[in-house]
Write a structure and sequence with these properties.
The complex is a heterodimer of chains A (793) and B (157). Chain A has three domains: 151 residues, Aldehyde Oxidoreductase, domain 4 (2-Layer Sandwich), CATH 3.30.365; 180 residues, Aldehyde oxidase/xanthine dehydrogenase, a/b hammerhead (Aldehyde Oxidoreductase, domain 3, Alpha-Beta Complex); 315 residues, Aldehyde Oxidoreductase, domain 4, CATH 3.30.365. Chain A has 793 residues and is α+β, with helices and mostly antiparallel strands. In chain A, the strands form eight sheets. A seven-stranded mixed β-sheet of chain A has the order 3-7-1-14-11-12-13. A five-stranded mixed β-sheet of chain A has the order 9-17-16-15-10, with helices on both faces. The longest helix of chain A is centred in the last third of the chain and has 28 residues. In chain A, α10 runs parallel beside α16 and α15 crosses α16. In chain A, α9 links the parallel β16 and β17. Chain A is built from 17 helices and 30 strands. Chain B is of the alpha+beta class and 157 residues long. Chain B has two domains: 76 residues, Roll (Ubiquitin-like (UB roll)); 73 residues, DNA polymerase, domain 1, CATH 1.10.150.120. Chain B has a five-stranded mixed β-sheet with strand order 2-1-5-3-4, sandwiched between helices. In chain B, β1 and β2 form a beta hairpin. In chain B, α4 crosses α5. The longest helix of chain B is centred in the C-terminal third of the chain and has 14 residues. At the A-B interface, α1 and α15 of A face α3, α4, α5 and α6 of B.
Amino acid sequence: MTTTFPFEAESTEDELKTVGTAAVRIDGLDKISGAAEFVDDMDFGPGLLHAAIVESPHAYAKILSIDTSEAEKAKGVVRVVTGDDFPYKFGMYMEDRYIFAQDHVRFVGEQVAGIIARSHREAVQAAKLIKVEYEVLKPLLDPKKAFADDAELVHPDLGDYTHVPWFFPQANTNIAHWRKIRKGDTEKAFAEADYVLEDTYTVPRYAHCAIEPHVTVSKLDQSDRLTVWTASQSPHTQRHLFAEALAPLGFTHKDVRVITPYVGGGFGGKAGVSMEIMGAAMATLVKGRPVKLRWTREQEFYNTYQRQGVIAELKVGVMNDGTITAVEHRLYWDAGAYVEYGANVVNAAGLSATGPYRVPNITNDSLCMYTNLPPGGPYRGFGYSEFHFGLESHMDRIAEAIGMDPVDFRRKNAIVEGDELAYGAHMNPSGLIEAIDKVADAIDWGTDEESDNPDTVMGKGMALFWKAPAMPPNASSASFLKFNEDGSLNITVSGMELGQGYLTVMAQIASEVLTVPVEKIRVETPDTDRNPYEWQTVASHVTWSSGLAVEKAAIEARGKIFDVIHQVYGYEDDSLYLEDEKVKCKTDPDFEKLLSDFVIDGIQTEEGTWRGGPIIATGKFMPEFTNANSDPETGQGGHPNVHYTVGATGVVLEIDKDSGRIWVRKAALAVDAGRAINPDLVTGQIVGGLVQGLATVLYEDMRFDEGGKMMNPTFTDYKIPTAFDIPDEIIPIIVEVPQPDGPFGARGVGEHTMIAAAPVIANAVYDALGVRIKSMPITQEKIAMSYLEKRSG
Amino acid sequence: MDLEINVNGEQWVLNVAPADVLLDVLREQVGTKSPKIGCERGDCGSCTILMDGRSVRSCLVLAVEAEGHDIVTVEGISYEGMSQLQDLFISTNAFQCGFCAPGIVLAATELLENNPDPTRHDVQDALAGNLCRCTGYEPIIEAVLAAAPARQEGDSQ
């Protein structure tokens, strides 16, 4: 049984002209000429004010007093702000945050007060004059300790918090959400299994490290309209949360406007609302003056969302023929001090923690644990990268234990269309087997490679991945489309161009339907007053969801075009078609009419009157087959995910036996894009995502001291890859098994490409040296020490 | 204090404080916004400019140190159309979010000025001070190699 989709996309069988081609990005000239404007580049005139934030030095403390008197007198200071000014809660999926701390601080770096001053320098100087008296409390820094019965509570009022219906917070504990899956009979399956492997894997926290820091400029004008220019993945969600949180001040949605120009990288870090709400709130106190709040690189590390750490306890049972019979996955997430967004990462992982395998008996417990570390949140991969590390390491170990080739083992258990998922719904069409075979082929799986260097040894690894968009069941997208006099098009949407090429892909979809060349289409970045609704640019869903909205708008426009032709010339609509920016007719080969002749001015009839007028159209998409109403104890009964994108990653690496240094000689990654609307851009996601994923396992690692303070919040100490730190060769492979409801069969690929990078390295290191490393990152030091231990017996 | 600098071929006389950083002065007083603020400590390279033809991180240069020097930003090389290198960046979709692009274009421009036939290692070396989080560098390296004068001559033969 498969899902019946209410909207079937345009036929994918016809010959496509634009979709499937490596069209040149429509933002190319903007970005390479230096013209592209990011929020920090916008001019706001001499009235611009600057904000700085006073941060907590303690991971957990009670605020006894805040003395702002000295700061208020400091040169250039216009206003000092504290939690007393805004005693309002906010949150994406659970309202557990305040704009500025109220009676407690819960992580090092939490905002306690703010300064608005005439210059950035004056704001920073004045922030140092604010005196805060704290009663320091003992911080909880470990999710398993937070789970203990006698643990201090990070949020004693958890039971009263407002949250979405698919979260299950446990009052009077630190468990902000507990996603359970109970399917089949795991205990019985383990008892009957020929082999059972149980182990624990740990993954630390990671930072997004978009090169553009968070920045926002907010202005409340004299007419009480609040405009926020922001580097965000989520303009409409931000407007909604600003309007909700600031409703006590009298704001409604119509009074709040969010404008988002180009964004300098997101990776999830600029989704939802984090620091932006401070800027928006502060601006309400200095009417008429724009206020800029820009994070430093340090703040970027410790006071935006971080990728959550996890302790994963995994037990898998198999039969001797290699059939997986049971998975028990218990994930303790270090979700941080506030989980308003991060709890949904926990939820998404809990639903899918079997990985891309057919598993009849499942017990998943995904536990969202409050700790006194910075708030966890969305990061490319959304929980999947984290649990795949243990899961895909485990699969190799099981294959070895039962004497099977790890690729054969995966092929045997790989999920296929129609297989039942952990929550009872069924798997969408998927090219997983094809991806496995193509990656195996690309890295010559089954052939041992020898190093010419006696000090080094070669290793190969393979790992699979899957991921579904994690979104509310009614997350939707919309688009407006209008023709111009010359037959060119303007399209407005509210997905964000984060670098992935979204604007270009939307142009390609409209171009395919309307035959207008991509170069004649302008797709605008969002302004919530003018562009139609989009939930957020996250979850790898905009090519699919926003793409469907654009496709529908284009189809509507085409219908209106045919109607005009029908009115004037009498041809039936179904005899008309578009080709090369002209309307043509199947029953009259001599007929053709240029779009530019009539899409604004209409067509003159024989009587001298006119028909038609400006061709404008709208499109929207909401997945009407999803629902999040499942049984809290079993997770059964709902249909929370729209579809999964799957794929495989393989590497060939060389390791220095003494130093543990790794060189990735070759990496291959196959992802099932359904249909690659623009293969160049899919390749861009493969290469970029793979390198970002390899960095989490080879280089990056957030370190905190015993007080919960991040010790390496700079690019000097938190190493992201440079041009030298990439594989010698990357082989991108695009698999295309169409998604029935996708635009031309497309589904998202943005996050997936980093998901399997960590386990594939773990598996290749084992292949090379026979040492199994179960904690990320897999540093040179860990490899060298483990190998030394192994050699010395 | 007065500061006299040449930015993109135009002479400017500016009033700056001794502690002012060149990056801020270029962005706020001259209005050239292509050098970006990414880390303010010389790690990321998004503020890269050419000073007398050499790439420098403008966040690590005091404005007064630029007295009498010629400064070029990406705006400056784009007035009369795109360079061969810029054209290749565009036509091969070699970038993504574009935030690091101005710095990378300048670092690569400097390389190709001095080395018409760079190896892959040379390109990696020239770009090692410019962080890019989106692309995984591969398409950028390929575009720079393709734009190398020696390669261009080879193509036209």
